[in-house]
Amino acid sequence: MDARDLTPRPTRRKPGEPRRSRPVQVAEAIKSWVVEQGLSKGDRLPGETDMIARFAMSKGTIREAMRILEAQGLIETRTGPGGGSFVGEVSAERARALLGNYFYFKNLSIRDIYEVRRALEPELAASLAGQLDEAALNGLEEVINRYPEPARTLDEEREQHIASLLFHARLADHAGNELLGFLIGFMAQILSDLTVDRQLYSPPNIELWKRGRAYQLELVDALRAGDGKKARAIMASHMETAQGLMEGQEAQVLKRFIAE
Hints:
mainly alpha
């Protein structure tokens, strides 16, 4: 394959879509080339001189394209002996953080988030019934044991909210479907961030603690017993109850904001 075959070709833009810069087009071409070559995490990429020849682009354009890919986590650069550019791998944590930045100014509501949670989490719970070993089940119980009593302070209330959402993130880690697990983990993360940013843990809500913890304990029992139907029903009720209580918290925060 000669350099002309690797030169980025302009793509048809949708109406209103901004024109992509040449470094962005080259970054996309490099990604495609990496896939075509069957390269994987840790594999060395060609040097800068080779990249300039392969993609028929200037040094500045190649360097900017590589910086774009490095910022995305798709390329790692190492210095010193044995250094160079290598294929990277975007972690789930980094992907969730980047996606969270996209939604940061979208003004998501509790209802928006729970529409997705109510559709996905009962199915995850059903799929995990009878599939988790005792170590995984004990790990879920360990999270629940972080909030055995109602919070006594606002700081404790905030930490309990975060811990209760960690329970759902841990469940997502065990998903056999990676896309399903990622989406549920992302929902837990974005709801945790929203709870802290908007102070939805204030005022303390004992009912939210009591009912949420009870549902989680019941769910672990159903998972241990291998009862998928029961696990689905428990999670569905958990999501419905949590949505109602969290929307109540959201309304109180809004009322407090208006009063101030």
